[in-house]
């Protein structure tokens, strides 16, 4: 998986959890949980969806790396090497 594919997967995962979110307006370093006002259940759902779509097991300690599009994409790319 390249970084572009990872970014697309992160955006799609967010959109599946918050269907009315404008993920195209998110900057790569925006803290999307704050920008989209995701509560803890939304964020947990995002992590589950991202894990299912990518096939990457995401541990609790990894979630701090999943706060921005860039951070999430970098995490996925690193895990899939």
From TrEMBL:
SUPFAM superfamilies: ACP-like. This is Acyl carrier protein. Residues 1-80 form the Carrier domain. It comes from Streptomyces akebiae. It comes from the Bacteria. InterPro entries: ACP-like_sf (IPR036736), PP-bd_ACP (IPR009081). It holds the Pfam family PP-binding.
């Amino acid at each position: 998986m390249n970084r572009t594919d990872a970014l697309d997967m992160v955006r799609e995962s967010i959109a599946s959890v918050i269907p009315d979110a404008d993920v195209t307006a998110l900057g790569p370093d925006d803290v999307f949980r704050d920008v989209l006002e995701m509560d803890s259940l939304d964020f947990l759902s995002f992590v589950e969806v991202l894990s299912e779509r990518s096939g990457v097991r995401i541990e609790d300690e990894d979630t701090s790396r999943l706060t921005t599009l860039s951070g999430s994409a970098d995490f996925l790319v690193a895990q899939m090497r």
